[in-house]
Specification:
Layout lengths: L2 E5 L4 E3 L21 E2 L1 E9 L7 E8 L5 E8 L3 E8 L2 E7 L9 E9 L4 E8 L4 E6 L6 E2 H9 L3 E4 L3 E7 L16 E4 L2 E4 L8 E4 L3 E4 L2 E8 L7 E3 L10 E3 L4 E5 L1 H7 L3 E5 L9 E3 L5 E8 L5 E4 L2 E4 L10 H5 L24 H12 L1
Antiparallel strand pairs: 1-2, 1-14, 3-12, 4-9, 4-14, 5-6, 5-13, 6-7, 7-8, 9-10, 10-11, 15-16, 17-18, 19-25, 20-21, 20-24, 22-23, 26-27
InterPro entries: Hedgehog/Intein_dom, Hint_dom_sf
Protein name: Hint domain protein
Pfam family, one: Hint_2
Length: 364
Amino acid sequence: MAWIALLDTREGRFCANGLGFDHHDAPQCDMADGGMLTSGSLMLETRMSPDGRPQELFGFSAGHPWPRSLTFQAIPGGGISMVHSHDGTVVHGAIRRKTFARTDVLRVTYAWDTESNWARLSIEEPEQGEVLAVPINDPKPFLVSDLRELILGQTDRVLAQDVIFAALSTQIEPIGPMPSLDPSVMAATPHGYRPVGELQRGDTVMTESSGVVPVLHRIDRTVPARGSFSPVRLRAPYFNLQQDMVVAPEQRLVLRGSDVEYLFNQEAVLVPARHLMNGHAAHPAPCGPVITYTQLLLPGHETLLTAGTWVESLYIGRLRRKVDLLSNSALQNLERSTLPEHGKPAFPVLKWFEAITLTDQRAA
């Protein structure tokens, strides 16, 4: 199982054996003429139209050897609809957001498994951590050739300018809490720094509020290295870093100091890495088509000491109580009894304009 296709603003890529380091020795889908993809995930990230009017975002239509089409559409109120027409049968679903803002990036994922007669349409707001999902009845498979031509632009395709990227996986991709550290990031333990990607359940790490705590789980995930997954390189010596480290845009750092107290009347604040990209302290990290992130799940959502700076560990809130979301998340294979419940973050999370104010203050 692998990511086999990626479309961004520059180009489309398709490789049946898997993209980048997600490459396998054998094809991950049936490339024969008429081959079907009976299970997988089609993901796209987009910005929504500011006027709230219906807008076709992504899709295709074809007429031979039978009529078929796929359409993702933005609908009034900030929602998303999906319609898949397959030889006279129509599969559809719609989902609405709780909030609407032009600056929001929306991640849409349609996952299906026709052998299990299961499918799911979901939307996520990476900046807010919101996740909504609805079941889809009686899903149909896709011709592999249709999806290949969709990504490569070799068919009657709709691709809105607001679409940031689209990607295709041959497995059911999870939704919800997302790991956000490069596996090479060095985490402080009682025995010195170790790569976070080598830590296992039962190992211990140094935290800011609770001292030494055990690692409950390490979560790994491979994703397209585009959009809200695009890696960010944080540069030493900024943020007290002893060496550069690579993180996902949504990884939050703990920042403190007299300027934080003056501007926000707080001892410390959490700032997503994407807000720190000013060309000096943080900038985009070169990467291939896919990237693997990892993160540690700790008992009390403690902050980790990584390469000299404090960062947020994986936050799952009360996910263990939300059976449907848990079963669709990257934690789905973990025993519920081993999952903690996390209260609200100890420090406030800065919005983008607040983070800009802080970074400008520090650059002055």
